[in-house]
Write a structure and sequence with these properties.
Layout lengths: L1 H32 L16 E2 L6 E2 L7 E4 L2 E6 L2 E5 L7 E3 L6 H4 L24 H5 L1 H6 L33 H11 L7 H7 L44 H9 L21 H10 L1
Antiparallel strand pairs: 1-2, 2-3, 3-4, 4-5, 5-6
């Protein structure tokens, strides 16, 4: 009897194990899609956000979390990981520390409302010592992360205050609904590649300034068409004939008429005339 009960107990235990494993998988899968559930951050309403002086970043002073807003996305730091979301209460997407925006990494320690124990002893007016905490390999992949020109800090992205209209039960809990509302109200185009990838936004198009057209250039001496000089040919001798109008006027002109000049007498070359020939014959 005891053996039968023991066998039955083992069989029941084996039958329960797969069901428990399946239930755990379903539970985890559901929590990933819930706003804020998977990382322990829950914002029932739109938080109060205050600008970090000298940084293009906002933080939530009343939140019990390391909660920030930068370049169109909300950023939270939980369990040594960075998560991003386009809505104030998620769902949150894990972002590799190699791609977290530099200005998020540069936020001073004092603005972390729930700092981890390893922040202890670090300067509150300086960024966390990520190079020491994450190691040399990470520091080599993100060189110069803690150095920048403080005189050329970009402007902060506008806060998506339209999300104030969606607290509690009105919160859009599907990415499709969130994207639709954001497209309707938000026209901001992120600068960071990781932000554009998260929001599935194309890269901003840089508009080039239209330059005035240059004034038309006068043709240079070399570009002008050369003037062709036509040399007179040997056979092109001016005609000695009178023009038809002149010949006609000379025929109409009668000697003695007004304005008519008598033609000069023809001058013949000296030679023997007919009288001279007759005299010469008589002498012979």
């Amino acid at each position: 009897m005891n053996t039968s009960l023991r066998t039955l107990g083992i069989a029941l235990a084996l039958s329960i194990l797969p069901a428990t494993a399946v239930h755990a998988q379903i539970s985890v899968g559901i929590q990933i899609g819930l706003p804020g559930a998977q990382i322990g951050v829950n914002m029932p309403s739109y938080p109060i956000l205050v600008a970090v002086p000298g940084y293009p970043v906002y933080y939530a002073p009343q939140a019990s979390a390391n909660y920030f807003f930068y370049d169109g996305l909300y950023w939270v730091y939980v369990d040594d990981n960075w998560y991003a979301s386009s809505w104030y209460n998620g769902p949150w997407a894990l972002t590799s520390r190699d791609y977290v925006p530099l200005f998020v990494l540069r936020i001073p320690v004092r603005y972390y409302r729930l700092p981890p124990p390893y922040f202890s002893g670090w300067r509150v007016d300086a960024p966390p010592r990520w190079d020491e905490h994450w190691g040399r390999d990470w520091a080599q992949r993100r060189p110069g992360w803690d150095r920048w020109d403080r005189r050329q800090v970009p402007a902060a992205a506008p806060l998506p205050r339209y999300q104030q209209k969606y607290p509690g039960d009105r919160y859009p809990d599907t990415p499709e609904r969130q994207r639709s509302i954001r497209t309707e109200h938000d026209r901001y185009v992120p600068r960071e590649a990781v932000s554009r990838q998260h929001l599935k936004e194309p890269a901003p198009v840089v508009q080039r300034r239209a330059e005035p057209a240059p004034p038309p250039r006068s043709p240079s001496r070399d570009s002008r068409e050369p003037v062709r000089r036509v040399e007179p040919r040997a056979n092109d001798v001016p005609s000695q004939r009178s023009s038809p109008n002149k010949a006609q006027s000379e025929r109409d002109c009668q000697p003695g008429s007004p304005g008519c000049r008598a033609a000069p007498p023809d001058r013949k070359a000296p030679g023997r005339g007919p009288a001279d020939e007759e005299r010469n014959r008589g002498r012979n």
